[in-house]
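Q: Two folds, back to back.
A: First:
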Amino acid sequence: MIPAQVVTAGQQALDKLIGPVDGVRVALLSTPDGFEIASLRTNSELQLNRLSAMAGSLMAMARAVGREINHAGCKRLTFETDSGVVVFQSVSSEFPCILCMVLDTNAILGRVLWAAAEVGAEMNKP
């Protein structure tokens, strides 16, 4: 069960901090076990339930690889495709979650990563 205040805070953070960023097709906050908390969609028909389900598994895999190479504490997984970039980032808060963003080719990655960090800070506010 996802507390209502977490859903509200997550949606507000996505709308305020990710919404104005160019090139973000989807921003999704999900639980580590794969359930959607909040989402923001711009010009995309991606199935968010599938993306949410994959987010936890991909972050767990990234952490396992990090441990194997003695780089513990994986915070972010980023991969590039011909169509853009996908970012999965852990959000440590009272209610831990994963932020997933699907970007198109005109997104400025540095700007997106800054906004992602701001979402994490926003989710940590009391």
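A: Second:
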Amino acid sequence: MSFTQPASVTLHAGCKINLHLEITGVRENGYHELDTLFFPLPSPFDTITISKGATGSGLLLECPALSIPPEKNIIYKSWKKYSDATGWKPDLAITVEKGIPDGAGLGGGSSDAAIILNYLNKYCPNNALSPERLNTLAASIGADVPFFLNNVPAHATGIGDILEPSTISLSGYSLVLICPDISISTPWAFAEWDKTMRSTNASNNKKEILTTTPSKDRKHSSRALWLFNSFEVVVYSAFPKLRAYKEKLMSFGAEGAVMSGSGSSIFALYRETEQAARAATALEAEGVATYLHHL
């Protein structure tokens, strides 16, 4: 069922963190097998304004924060792939105000792509895609895109595209997310991980296991959460400042802290809101972009 396409709409594309991310293997084609747990966060976010364009104008895309040609943007790719799949090629003017840092491991580009795909599928006058077909199309654009279509906690395997909804809850925690001014290339991180594993046969970092309910309720819960990221071993070696940031977050009493995606963002979970607030204030004082969430 399609809806009447509005003249203009402004949408917020949120981000994700990886509560755990384990590289479990490498395929013959070079793609990496993953086992990861996605968790959505409302901020930081990108602001996307979508307006009807002039007839025959195609897609006019403005994203001042990214110095790449519009046709190289993941939003353009999403619009083009959707139109190829359905035959609907709407004339649109899209403006993107980036709030999610590039190269932070928060899925900003994938989130933008999912926002566009959901918009197109909602207003497609005919031939709108089924959820299964839309998911397949999303996976062809980027491994994280299918997650953002539904934007609920999900366990992912494969290359990150095989999703199962997760009942994980962080209720009772406060979460501090920091985004240092360091951009990390995901292809670089994978290549460094490959090189390190081949040369040293290094083992993965130790997993920090946390319960996922507040301490007063622990005896009633058997659920546990692994805070872990395979990329930390190579990223912290190349960027020791990030390791120092993680240690500082822990020093304020965090139950655990870990990098998200291939970095450079790091988040920490606190039982006490006062601890989280002090940690956030300390990192902000160092000029680090910081986001405090009470979950």
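Q: And?
A: The chain has eight helices and twelve strands.
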